[in-house]
Design goal:
single chain; 283 residues; 11 helices; mainly alpha; two-stranded antiparallel sheet
Length: 283
């Protein structure tokens, strides 16, 4: 029994440590944001979702017996995500700030508030733990499925620039620790989501090994091109020729001012110019 508790505590402690490292991963990004005083086009939704997840697991751990290690890591995550969101809002554009506030209201105020009210007044203590566990597990499974979009992008572009190996490795390691913590503690709500996290983590690392030395494929949409190599008309030269010969097409009066002298050469040159202009119009 004592050995069992030691293993549970050990995996939980390692899970806390590795999860803290993962949680600190965005620090360089926010250092650049603070230094340049701009959000640089980053999105706030990952931090809002991470904050919502931490709030759910904290609420679950408060009603769960002997869940101190869940409380510690999710408390740390809660305050870190609050800090990230605050820094983001400090330097974000007006449009991004409005979008972030909408997400916070949707997930962290109304969503979390509704869960608190329903589970607090419609369920008893043990039933409440079960309901909160299912909610946390379902949400965690949805979060773990999110990397599939990155996996698809890696396969399509044959580039791993959007999927750093270190992040995939630590996320996989974190999933291993929390799986064994939940398994030994007989907490299915902690163990089951991390099975999926482990599988996706391994998939990401395998893809990294496959595409790490591949050249990035740039997908270019085909454009309609008109082949005019066979019908090239130098309009500049044509215009100069027309201007230099324009006097040829003007009728000339005779000495008495009554008749019109027809110049056969002029007529022929005028016809040639008109043919050239017709060809230009057709092109």
């Amino acid at each position: 029994m004592a050995l069992h508790l030691t293993w549970v505590f050990g995996f939980g402690l390692l899970g806390n440590f590795i999860s803290c490292l993962v949680c600190l991963a965005p620090l360089p990004t926010f250092y650049r944001i603070c230094k340049k005083k701009t959000s640089q086009g980053f999105h706030s939704i990952p931090y809002v979702i991470a904050l919502f997840s931490a709030m759910l697991w904290l609420f679950y751990a408060l009603f769960k017996e002997d869940a101190l290690l869940l409380i510690t890591i999710n408390s740390f995550t809660f305050f870190m995500e609050i800090g990230y969101i605050f820094m983001y809002l400090l330097y974000a554009t007006k449009k991004d700030k409005l979008s972030t506030f909408k997400l916070l209201l949707l997930f962290n105020v109304f969503g979390f508030g509704l869960i608190c009210v329903l589970t607090r007044f419609l369920t008893q203590r043990q039933k409440r733990v079960q309901v909160l566990g299912w909610i946390c597990m379902t949400f965690s499974l949805c979060v773990f499925v999110a990397p599939l979009f990155i996996v698809r992008k890696v396969i399509k572009t044959k580039s791993v620039e959007f999927m750093p190996f270190s992040l995939s490795f630590f996320l996989t390691l974190s999933a291993v620790m929390w799986f064994f913590y939940g398994f030994l503690k007989k907490d299915q709500f902690v163990a089951v989501p991390n099975i999926l996290g482990l599988l996706f983590g391994i998939l990401q690392m395998v893809l990294y090994m496959i595409y790490r030395n591949s050249k990035k494929v740039v997908v270019v949409e085909p454009k309609l091109q008109l082949d005019t190599s066979e019908h090239v008309v130098d309009l500049e030269k044509l215009g100069a020729a027309i201007c230099s010969e324009i006097a040829i097409g003007i009728p000339k009066l005779n000495d008495g001012g009554e008749g019109i002298i027809e110049d056969q050469n002029a007529k022929e040159k005028t016809k040639k110019i008109m043919k050239a202009m017709d060809v230009t119009n057709k092109l």
